[in-house]
Each structure stands twice: as structure tokens, then as C-alpha cells.
């Protein structure tokens, strides 16, 4: 039966160079040594992840695990200066943290790592380095390739979230340590702000898949990971490709699961929450405690097979069923080739050409790149309007169901009229009523047709061939529905547009869609996670509730504008009394006839107070471009006291050549 636990609010982990990292520990009741679970993040254990931590580490501690939540150097209450995501400093510090945990008398030497997104990344990255004490990993919404599948680039195209995420990390880095734990908090706060790296600019300078992105990309050497890995994500999340890749390629035990969820742990997802705790306890029970939990006997790949559900940008339940594949790759999945014709998908090649040239505003139904980060209004909606502006190829209404599992591929022969151009592919399920649901998508920078390490600009008029491997999907199309492939030369605001409008000419006789079609005569038991169990929640005093809004509108000059506002609320923590509030406004715009008018801006505000201590921070960010360069600007103003006296203010400006972007 689950037991009780105690909380150590703060303890210090001293690194070999003398820096100290701040840790919060949930300790199981009783005597003896316990296996440990580490979550290692830059998001502030004191307030940033505290509500989520209350729902996870309390449960795991009650089940006999010492849970350790550590702030990365230069973030939260930890000493030092933060340098970059997944840096050598972060990972070598992580090895030292694992060694420290293993040496404690309350730890039996067996440690697992858990995390979503950043924590999912560095769990895999630390396993890649083979520290002795790391015995298992639960990695949620992560990547195996930092260039191909993160928040910066996709298919060699720049994602607008490179700017958005850079602005969010800028705001996050500007926050001070808690004076309760750091007497030097003010000096450290000023230093953090003064020495903040301009990460959005640095990432933008790294436009090809070189050593910078290979660092931390575990696909560079699959056998290096020897710890068993449970990889989880959701279809509404941006990070859908890693679980199947890990299940297919790791030599260590690896299991994959993808549910309907957005970018959250499954038990707190807004989309059909599930028993995340049970999955974690089964995995760590086997690999940390040596219990017979059945973890090793799970199917390689458990999947929520989606169906058409009349998509909207608001959170609503998904439609589908759980299925499983005992082995992955599966003999139940076979390629089905369909050839592109004049608006058709057929069994035979068709001669001819078809021109594709989209307005820069195409993509308005694409939703937010990574749903789960905003309050709401972030999912992909009905694609019909975007489809009308695309080149579409579709089947006749299906006589039989069509089930897809894997990564579709689009093979194209093409020529262009500009040296830089994009091609974006979307596969959609169209209902008899004409509602188009996006199944999967992916862009390709056509300069990267031969790979992402040495892109080459295009010669207008020359004939080329390329392949787009779309994102992982699992979808069942019902009889009477139509499968549609939509191709466009833009997908704003998810993908930053090319420097100028381009026309891509398809040569149809050598263009096709390859579908991963699933055939199963008898389903195995899927062992789906089931409904979420009860779990503790943080009993914070809520001073301002969370809320959000979005508005898309057309300005008088014809530019399409998207304005969003997310208020994450304001609350008082019951453990230490700190009051924290935050909100962000984001702005996207582009003119349909001029991709070089694309612009992004965001303004973040944080407030902190306890007793007589009061600080607030405003961060502003802008990214604009022309045909030759990107222009980045940011500013931080940090205030102290009720009168909001300026403690420090600083601006940065950078310009980065576009290269092949």
C-alpha cells in the first residue's frame, strides 16, 4: 500500500567546481535506502513547476521512491550562469547530480530520470553518456534529433517558435532566486540579466545540421543508450516522432506509447487524461526495484488510433481507440503508393505539371506549434480554408476503412522560379460534409533536398527530386471519407516564410504519396493506460485565475494579424508563501503577397512578492526580416518594490543573414 512521505524544501548539491545546485526532495517514510527519481529542469522548482510536481513526485514518493527535483545551473535557486539548452555544462552537471544522489545514504544507487520536453530531452541525453547510477528513463514529448525535431527547425525550414521559445526563455532566465535560499539573490539576479545569452539569435545562426545540433541528438549513436527507455507523447503535441524511433532503434529495452494528449503529462492533459502514474510506476518498478511488473512484456508500440472528430482550435475530446503493435517496426504496416494526378491520388502515374504558389498567410488553421503551452485556442482546426489555397490531391470516397500508422512520405519531382522555396505537405481526412482534419504535416526547405548538413540554393527552371517524410501519425479514415494531400509553399505562422514568393512546378509523373497502411486481422490487447487516478494538487491561494484569448484579423493594408494573450494567473504557494503571477501577449503578422513582411513580437511579465519583498520583470521581443536578413531585438526591465523602481534595464540587437532560409 502507498505510504507517506516528507519534503525537504531545499538542499544543496555541490558540483566539482564549487557551484551549488538547488534541489527539492520528496522522501519516502521509513528507514533504509530507496531508489530515486530525478527531474532536472531550468523551470524553477520553487514556483514554476511546483503545481505539476505536486501531482507527480508526491505519488511516486508515497510508492517508495526518493524524488529529487533539481534546478539547472543559473536558474531557480541554483548558482552559476545558464549558458544554453542541453549544453555540455548542463549535461556534465547532470552526471554530477546523479553521482551525488547515488552516494546519499537514503539512496540504494538505482536512479531513474523522468521529464517532459526539456526533462525528456536531457533524460535521454544523460542516458547517452552512460552514468553508472542511471538505470531507467521515462521520456515524455522529447526528441532524438535536435535539428530535425525540436522547436527551432523542421525540414530545414525555420519555425517561428524559434523566436517564440527564445522570448519565453528570455523571460524565464530573468527571474531571481528566492531570497529565503539565496542571501545574494539581488547580486545574482542582476548578473543573470546582464549575462543572459541571446539564444534566439544563436539558434538562428545555426541553420544547418552541424555539430551544434548533433550534440545531444541521441540518434547519432543508438547503442550508446543502455538504460531502458519508456517514451511517451500525445498526438496533439509537437513532439510525435521520438517514441517510435526509440522503439525501432534502441538496443536497450524500449517501449513507446502515444495517446491523444497535448504537451502535458497525461494525467493532467486537457485532452482525455490518462493514468500516467501507473505507466511510470510499472516502468520504474521493473528497472529500479526489480519487481515483476510486466513492463518488459508490454507491446513495443501502444497507440491511440484517431478518427475524424470535427476539429476545432479549442480543447475537446478526441475520437478513436487504443491499439498496439507487439513489435516495432511492425509487419502489419506496409507501404501503399498513390500517384499524384490533376487533383487526384491514384494507382498509376499521370503525366503533366501543376504549379503551386500560396499566399504567405496560408496556415491560419494550423494552430499553435506546440499545443499545451498556451491556455487554449491552440489546436489545428478545420483545414478546408487552407486546403482551398493549396494544391490538393485526393482519393474518391473510401469504400473501406483506411488505417495509417507511421510516417507518410511525399516524393516530388519539381522545378522552381526562385533560389529559395518551401514545400509543405499535409495529409487530411475529409468528411462527407467537407470538414478537413489534419492527420499529419511537415515542411521541406527545398534547398535541403539532398540533406540538412550542406543545403544548396536552387537554380530556377532546373528539375529536381525531393522527399518529405511527414510526422508520425495514427489515423483511421472511415468509409465515405476522402484522404487528401495538400501541398503549399507556405504555412504561417508555424513555419517562417521564404524570403520571397515562389512558384513550385510539380512534374506529376514522378510525384507520389507513400502511405504507411496498417492491416490487422486480429488485434492484440492494447494495454492502454486507462483513466487517470486520483492525485494530490497544490492547494495554492488563487488571486487571479488563468485565462486566454486569440484574435486573427486582417489589417487595412491587407496583412493578416494574429494577437494572443495568455494570463497564467496569480497565486500564493502554500509551502513557502511566495506570490507569483505572469502573463504573455504574442503578435504575428504577414502580408499575403510579401513573405518578407513576416514579424513576431511578444511581451512577458512576471511578478513576485512575499512580505516586504517585491520584484517584477517585463521582457519585450521582436523578430522581423527582409529578403537578406533577420532582425532580432529584445529588452528587459526589472523592477523592485511597490513603487517599481528600476533595478536594471538592458537591450540587445542582432541581425542574422538568411542564408537559405
Automatic annotation (TrEMBL):
Pfam name, any one: Peptidase_S15
Lineage: superkingdom: Bacteria
Domain Xaa-Pro dipeptidyl-peptidase C-terminal span(s) in chain numbering: 281-536
InterPro entries: AB_hydrolase_fold, CocE/Ser_esterase, Galactose-bd-like_sf, Xaa-Pro-like_dom, Xaa-Pro_dipept_C, Xaa-Pro_dipeptidyl-ppase/CocE
A single GO molecular function term of this UniProt record: hydrolase activity
SUPFAM superfamilies cross-referenced by the UniProt entry: alpha/beta-Hydrolases (SSF53474), Galactose-binding domain-like (SSF49785)
Keywords noted in UniProt: Hydrolase
Family annotation (PANTHER family): COCE_NOND FAMILY, PUTATIVE (AFU_ORTHOLOGUE AFUA_7G00600)-RELATED (PTHR43056:SF10), PEPTIDASE S9 PROLYL OLIGOPEPTIDASE (PTHR43056)
Name of this protein: CocE/NonD family hydrolase
Organism (species): Leisingera daeponensis
